Amino acid sequence: MMNSILTLPSREETKDAKPLLTLFTVLKPFEGEADSHQRNAIASWRALEPDVEILLVSNTRIPEDVRSQFHCYQATKINRYGTPLLDEVFRLAASKGRGAVRAFVNADIILDHRFVNAAEQLMQSKLHSWLAIGQRIELEMPNRIDHSDDQWISDRFQEIGSRGTAASSLCKDFFLFPADLFQDIPAFAIGRGNWDNWMVWKSKASHIPVVDISQVAPVIHQEHGYSHVPGGRMSAYVSGPEARENQRLAGGRNWLVGSTPNWRLDKEGIHPMRFATLRFSKDLLRVASLLRTMIGFPNPRRVVKESAKIGVSAGAKDEHSDPGDPTDSAASP
Q1: Residue of 205, 54, 196, 190 lying closest to 136 (CA atoms)
Q2: How confident is the model at residue 291, as a pLDDT?
Q3: Which of 54, 80, 92, 242 is least surrounded by CB atoms within 10 angstroms?
Q4: Which CATH number is 65's domain given?
Q5: Residue 95 falls inside a structural domain
Q6: Cα–Cα distance between 3 and 5 in angstroms, integer?
Q7: Which residues in the chain come in under a pLDDT of 70?
Q8: pLDDT value at position 289?
Q9: Residue 324 lies in a domain
Q10: CA–CA gap between residue 304 and residue 331 (Å, rounded)
């Protein structure tokens, strides 16, 4: 059981308001670029109050100025490498959260009000249940940003048109879902590969629509290195022991079926996507570039061929992920 460090946020006017959204995350140590990136992300989330409540989980020391403003919890369940395990984190969000919607968001992701709007639209939609994901936008950020007002958030989102780069669909940095879902998940290691694909695969296997909200709720990922993981990015997501353990718990990598939504929320409303694999094919160059970085393929043409093989081998599994009847959500993750 986790022990609460703080039971109430410091803003007196919001302590009794019931939020729409419970946003929870697992923090890295507040060191180097992770310090500034996490402070940027958390400041953008704070701007969404009182519609959002924020639960911060860490197995290391949280600075006092952060602890004094947020619900903070100590992660007590870690693996032998010192990495927090997500089954405990998701149970905490289920038990402590007050919002009708839960959102797991990586601690370096910047959000704006459109994220909350998307959650509200999904709650009011014809879908009885759903999991929402989105394609992040990569943006290089300065070391320090003035958070004294919220103008810096809109400034950053204006910059993504000129400086931002859309990431591969394999990269999933948030999961948005109703409070009754994902209360109990396997003991995945946070920040390592394969658990995020499991979230999408499990939803599809349970006949729960997976909704892409990228068009209505863009999110910013602050570019960073992987020096915090021995072996770097490849080890974190593919070859390392924690990534392999996540793969075992997930029953495979599920790259294709775990990266393709079968519904979309856009300005016209919510719609089924009948050809989920087509979206993956359109993203093949980004996927190939990511795989080349992670797996170390020396030849870009070979990357495309290997990516195509992934699609062929997983295609049979993905065919069973038809969006189907949006009211058919009896099986819950």
Answers
A1: 196
A2: 59
A3: 80
A4: 3.90.550
A5: yes
A6: 6
A7: 1-17, 224-233, 279-333
A8: 63
A9: no
A10: 36
Domain count, the chain: 1
**By C-alpha distance, which of 144, 133, 150, 151 is closest to 200?**
133
User: Between vectors from CA 234 to CA 193 and to CA 142, what angle results, nearest 5°?
Assistant: 90
Domain that holds residue 136: 12-318
Q: How far is CA 84 from CA 28, 139, 257, in A?
A: 10, 27, 26
Question: Any bridge partners for residue 32, and if so which?
Answer: none
Residue 323 belongs to a domain = no
84 prior amide bond cis, ω within 30: no
124-156 in b/e form (b: 16+ CB < 10 A) is ebebebbbbbbbbbbbebeeebeeeeeebbeeb
What six digits make up the tokens of 75?
Answer: 């992660």
Residue 110: CA count within 13 A, CB half-sphere: 28
Token code pair at residue 210: 């997976």
The per-residue b/e assignment along 31-53, b for 16 or more CB within 10 angstroms, e otherwise, is eebbebbbbbbbbbbbbbeebbb
Q: Which has the closest alpha carbon to 65: 45, 42, 49?
A: 42
77's tokens: 């369940």
Contact yes or no for 313/325 (Cβ under 8 A) = no
> CB neighbours of 64 closer than 8 A, spacing ≥ 6?
none
Predicted local confidence at residue 2, as pLDDT:
37
Answer whether residue 1 is part of any domain. Answer: no
Residues with Cβ within 8 Å of residue 115, at least 6 apart in sequence: 48, 103, 176, 217, 219
Helices 195-205 and 241-250: crossing angle, nearest 10°?
10
Q: How far apart are CA 322 and CA 236, in angstroms?
A: 31
